[in-house]
Amino acid sequence: MDARFTDEQEEIRRTLRDLLDKRCGPQELRAAVDTPAGHDRALWTALAGDLGLPGLALPETCGGVGGTVTEMALACEETGRALAPTPLLATAVLAAPLLLALGTGAQRAGLLPRIASGGLTAALAVPGPALATALALTGHDRRGQWAGGGRAGGVQARRAEGGWQVYGQVDQVLDGHSAELLVVAAHTGGFARSRVLLFLVRGDAAGLTRVRQTALDATRPQGRIQLRDVPAELLGDEAADALSALARLGGTAAACLAAEAVGAAGRVLERTVAYVGQREQFGRPVGSFQAVKHRLADAYVQVQAARSAAYYAAWAAAAPPPGAETAGSLALAQALEALRRAAAEGIQLHGGIGFTWEHEAHLYFKRAAGDELLFGPVHRLRAHAADAAHVFEEAGT
Fold it and tell me: Do the strands 181-188 and 122-125 form a parallel or antiparallel pair, or are they unpaired?
């Protein structure tokens, strides 16, 4: 197998990095997260219109570029490097694949070209703090109890005249406060015969209330949505297996998240290496001390290993070879650890300024901590992968 990237893939990386270096520096980043939407709409228009980023992994028949998970992961690596606050993860990584996998012909034709062009943003709303469980990254839940179990709480769906209505609340929805389309996981059928289905809710639907939450990672904006008998459209048909679709999405999402974390880790490590080469102590650069070299070398090895794992997970996501079903979870765990390590070293080795609000180092540490809260923690990612691979089962059991 040839592990090298193609010329087209390298061009995606180069072009995107050039654009983000010009349009998403530290000042632009802070200005974007302070807007009501939490991202720079002009930057998103450029990413969508000039580069076709939202449609990178969508087929050409749906208005996309026709790429694979690998191309999307490379794009996420670059957006992670800049901590670019964009709807890319919520729209293109989490929502669009579900529309492609489960949507009817009319739904795909009506929504996916608009997503690919950047004219429509979307978000996945999963009840409770259970996004990682719903994506089958940190636990087994084949009945979808994370969606409320058919009991009070969560989100419930019922038939209404002319369609469906959904009722409930979701507290942590990535870009949920600004997305123009919500893909909502809801229980239907009552408690005894309940099952999880996915529903489409317009951002301006009657009965929908949305508010932006204060999140640990401001570059990853989240919203709380309240649904009070909101009109909804069933995604696909009632025979659709929403839980399996979410589980399949988990591998793709984990690969993209791992690549994103690797990009951020690589960038904060680059900045730290540059700084210790300039900062002097006892008449010599701090980076010349052996202890500092060892710490940075260890962080570098960890980042490079995580990068390799993320690339493999992206390659395996399209058609997992035997034994690679847990590649995404393991790559994500490794990447989150590498980002936390690189960010922590960056804060400490920057000395006094590394702890200040004005410096960017804390933004990378918050990205690591925030992603682990949303998609981890790391030990649960690894435990689930071990369970799925039957690592600790005795022979013959």
Answer: parallel
Q: What's the CA dihedral at 74, 79, 81, 85 to 10 degrees? A: -160
Phi, psi angle pair for 186, to nearest 5°: -140, 150
pLDDT number for residue 55: 95
**Following CA atoms 189, 193, 196, 199 in sequence, which dihedral angle do they give, to the nearest 10 degrees?**
-10
Q: What value, to the nearest 5°, has the Cα angle with vertex 191 and ends 189 and 193? A: 50
Q: What angle is formed at CA 18 by the lines to CA 16 and CA 23, rounded to 5 degrees?
A: 90
The answer to whether 137 touches 384, Cβ cutoff 8 Å, is yes
Q: Do residues 169 and 145 make contact, with C-beta atoms less than 8 angstroms apart?
A: no
Tell me, yes or no, if the pTM score tops 0.90: yes
Q: Which residues contact 158 (CB under 8 A, 6 or more apart)?
A: 164, 165, 167, 188
Q: Which amino acid is at 175?
A: D
Q: Are 257 and 375 in contact (CB under 8 A)?
A: yes
Inform me whether the pLDDT recorded for 16 exceeds 70.
yes
What is the spatial distance between Cα 84 and Cα 175, in angstroms, rounded to a whole number?
Answer: 13
pLDDT tens digits for range 264-296:
999 999 999 999 998 888 889 888 899 999 999
The answer, yes or no, to whether residue 389 has pLDDT greater than 80, is no
Q: What gap in Å lies between CA 348 and CA 239, rounded to an integer?
A: 54
In single-letter form, the type of residue at position 224 comes to: R
Do the bridges between strand 280-281 and strand 284-285 make them parallel or antiparallel, or are there none, so unpaired? antiparallel
Which amino acid, one-letter code, is at 3?
A
Per DSSP, the residues of 126-159 read -SSS-HHHHTTSS---TT-GGGTTTSSSSEEEEE
